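Here is one chain, start to finish.
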Amino acid sequence: MDRHPAFDSPHTFRDLGGYRTTDGLRVRPGRLYRADSPGDPTKHTADRDRFPSLSVGTAIDLRTEKPATALGLIARARSPLAFHCASGNDRTDRLAALVLALLGVPDDTIVFDCTLTELAGRAPLSDGRIRNEGRSPARPAAARAPESVMRLFLASLRSRYGSVESYVTTALGVDAAPLSVALRAHLLEPVPATWPPLTFRRATPAEAPLLVRLRDTAALWQLAHGIDQWKPGEKDETHFRDRMESGEVWLSHTDAVPTGAYELWWSDPAAWGPRPPDAGYVHRLMTTPYTAPPATGRALLAHAESRIAAAGRPYARLDCLSSNPRLRAYYEAAGYTVVGEQREKDGGSGSPYAVTLLEKRL
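Its structure:
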């Protein structure tokens, strides 16, 4: 599934499908969407054609509808539904959080979904100025969605009411028990037992914006799960175009939808120092959170190894932050062995950091 259908406006339109629940189900794709204000679709011919293709039967504007009302509409909807406010956070975040929590989606996933609004950058604010004859919004941070805000919302709600269900019943006046049953009945499904095959192809310079989005999405997932490694905005389109010129950048797809990517370098002196041409170096291995088929990361890694072997080089090498034992264990399980540590790697940020060096004989 593609979580982000392409629209010129709204900018934060996305599918809430694919998220896993604590009891092993997932939110059905193509049933529930969230967004910022759609503006005037008649001004965007492509958008006017795209929106009907999603078969959305109900659209809820949270600037006029109350949360009890909105929850009831979602529970009763039997066709795809979209809800939005002006900038796609605040009211939209709160309703998305309530629905996902009632479905049994874990807090870290709810936080991650909230932060995806950051991928739109300042575009919602720009649209807001257009709608308001050039006037800036009263709240310049309206398009921001830091993970700390949603964590605070969930913690405060539970501190005051005891649970999301109690909040819905007490504060919104809606019986949470039957509401949860109705939501689960038409919004959850089993996780697929089989998936379409992955396909791989080299990325083109025109796909640099896609690679930036994939990396920033992975960075937001890490932050939502308490992993201190990548930060959004660290790599721009120029970075990926440069890597295409000096090495290789590959994308994986499932049914033409991007599911992951990696970079393949032919030297890495910053981490490994001067070396003979006996290895390929894997960087920025990333998958689309919650929507990529299981084991996509391993498949990407195996593909990188096949490229290295085809070049006649006997070693695959990579590194990870020394402070990330979870990632180190992942690579060790894939057959990599720790062979050293670079305590002051300069990755171009101006702040050296320690990395663990791992190697696999092919």
